[in-house]
Amino acid sequence: MYQNTRKNILSDHSDIVKLILTNLCSLRTVGVALDTLRCQGIILAWLQHSIPEIFKHVAKDGSCFRCTEKWVKQFLTDHLNWSFRRATRAAQKLPPNVKQVLLDQFLCLALTIRDCAIFDATFLVNIDQTNIIYQPLNTSTFEVTGSKQVAVLRQEEKRAFTIVNGISAKGHVLPLQLIYKGKSSCSLPSKSTPQYEKAMQQKFKISYSNTHTYWLLRLYSKVERPEGLWPQFVHCAPFSSNAPYFREKLYV
């Protein structure tokens, strides 16, 4: 059994409470958006670092303390008079001609498989890319209740990098390719970055975009850019000796 809202659990640790509040207030002072999960992470980090035993203490009812979202909200209200207002937006909807779109895609793939002589599922590769935001933008944040002006740092810009992943119809998974905005190796993570060596062992490909954005703007081919998709594909799914050629075709 766990009790989620133990209000006075930190009453004997005023010094830790002060450190937590100072940390949170300093972040808001420079405009960092703080939602419930970020506040929870900060509080958990302080508690686990300074008083980890607080999570092992068993109350009379047999319950243990957990730093839940409900407890975090109450903590912020009691100590900082902070409240949270969440923005809403319409959910993404499917296009009205979704069935026709799917049929067109199916026919395009079928035609490509025929025309490009894709005789094995290994040669049919589906790739996708997604951006990883260093600090997700948020239009909502905890702030003193009643505040008329709520500033948020870097609300107009987004810093991120792109991960490109791929898998063949036969089940071969390509190593991840990480793309950073920039035109030189100075834009890439340092080789001393934690887990860098592990990424290299997993055959990750880390490269800069050489453009104004971090997105993969075109599909790499063997001739255009040898460090692109081709060597990763060969590494994961070796081609049979009778493969006549390899041709890349991109459908968006």
Descriptive account of the structure:
It is a single chain. The protein has helices at 14-29, 36-50, 69-80, 98-115, 196-201, 229-236; strands spanning 2-3, 64-65, 82-83, 125-133, 143-144, 160-168, 177-180, 205-208. The protein has 252 residues and is α/β, with parallel strands linked by helices. α1 (14-29) packs antiparallel against α2. The two termini are 50 Å apart.
Could you give a quick summary of the protein structure above?
The protein is α/β, with parallel strands linked by helices. The chain has helices at 14-29, 36-50, 69-80, 98-115, 196-201, 229-236; strands at 2-3, 64-65, 82-83, 125-133, 143-144, 160-168, 177-180, 205-208. It contains six helices and eight strands; from the N terminus they run E-H-H-E-H-E-H-E-E-E-E-H-E-H.
Cα end-to-end separation = 50 Å
Q: Kindly state the number of beta strands.
A: 8
Overall pLDDT score: 77
Please state the overall shape, judged from the principal axes of the Cα atoms. elongated
Q: Structural class, judged by helices and strands?
A: alpha/beta
Radius of gyration: 25 Å
Strands of the largest sheet, in order across it? 4-6-7-8
Strand content: 5-15%
| Element-level helix/strand string | EHHEHEHEEEEHEH
pLDDT under 50 segments (min length 5)? 1-5, 87-91, 219-228, 241-246
Q: How much helix is in the residues?
A: 25-40%
Total count of helical runs of at least 4 residues: 6
